[in-house]
Amino acid sequence: MEKPNIIPWICPRCGEETTDFPALSRRDNKTEICSKCGTEEAMIDFFLSEGGEK
Ligand SMILES: [Zn+2]
To answer: β-strand 32-33 against 23-24: which pairing, if any?
Structure first.
């Protein structure tokens, strides 16, 4: 099976080189970040909203 042409790119949030499909930052909705950072921001939002609700 042929691999698709994946171009490594640098995530501006953590500065790490990645081949992940970029996720849109929840901070400004235009910065593309790695999936790891995307998950991290989602987690932060989740915990922040949880703490704010109760
Ligand atoms: Zn990152």
So the answer is: antiparallel
